[in-house]
Specification:
By secondary structure, the chain is mainly β. The protein has one helix at 130-138, and strands at 10-13, 16-18, 25-27, 40-44, 53-58, 63-69, 72-77, 82-87, 92-96, 101-105, 112-117, 126-127. Helix content is 6%, strand content 42%. A five-stranded antiparallel sheet has the order 1-9-6-11-4, with no helix packed on it. A hairpin with a 4-residue loop joins strand 7 (72-77) and strand 8 (82-87). The chain starts with 9 loop residues before the first strand and ends with a helix. Bound molecules: thymidine-5'-diphosphate. Thymidine-5'-diphosphate (TYD) is lined by residues 40, 42, 44, 53-54, 56, 121.
């Protein structure tokens, strides 16, 4: 949605179950955690520390992004305001509504970025040009 702002981007806690016998942690994402039907799951890995990912916005797609391992920064931008969010906890996810430009960088070694998405892959849903995105937001 065109009128989404960076205030609509939310950190959501993912329940964490700590094993009583010290065998590690378990986090679970059930349908109720994210406000959309999950149609697709993908993940970024082997990302060099100097790489930039993202650099686009979506017309309809909603995403829930998790640093499953390691850390990285997400810059979110609604065309008027922007802010940076550090993702570094596997029990926290960033809900990015449609109509928000995002850029990811500063990936730590071995980091994994898991993304749950509300739609199947559709290149026509992307704004890959920042000025086109700005014009869309101003319309
Ligand atoms: P892109 O969404 O630009 O990645 P990122 O935002 O992480 O930098 O996608 C990179 C390439 O992968 C692009 O050519 C499209 C392709 N791709 C698919 O084919 N299917 C998918 O589900 C995704 C997310 C990307």
């Amino acid at each position: 949605m065109k009128n989404r702002s960076i205030d609509d981007v939310e950190i959501i806690s993912i329940p964490k179950i700590i094993d009583e016998e010290g065998r590690g942690k378990l986090s679970v994402i059930e349908k109720s955690i994210v406000p959309f039907e999950i149609k697709r799951v993908y993940y970024l890995y082997d990302v060099p520390s100097d790489a930039f990912r993202g650099g686009h916005a979506h017309k309809n797609l909603i995403q829930f992004m998790i640093a499953l391992s390691g850390s990285f920064e997400v810059k979110i931008d609604d065309g008027s305001n922007n802010k940076k969010v550090m993702l570094n906890k596997p029990n926290q996810g960033l809900l990015i509504p449609s109509g928000i430009w995002r850029e990811m960088d500063n990936f730590s070694a071995g980091s994994v970025c898991l993304v749950l998405a509300s739609e199947f892959f559709d290149e026509s849903d992307y704004f890959r040009d920042y000025n086109t995105f700005l014009n869309y937001k101003k319309q």
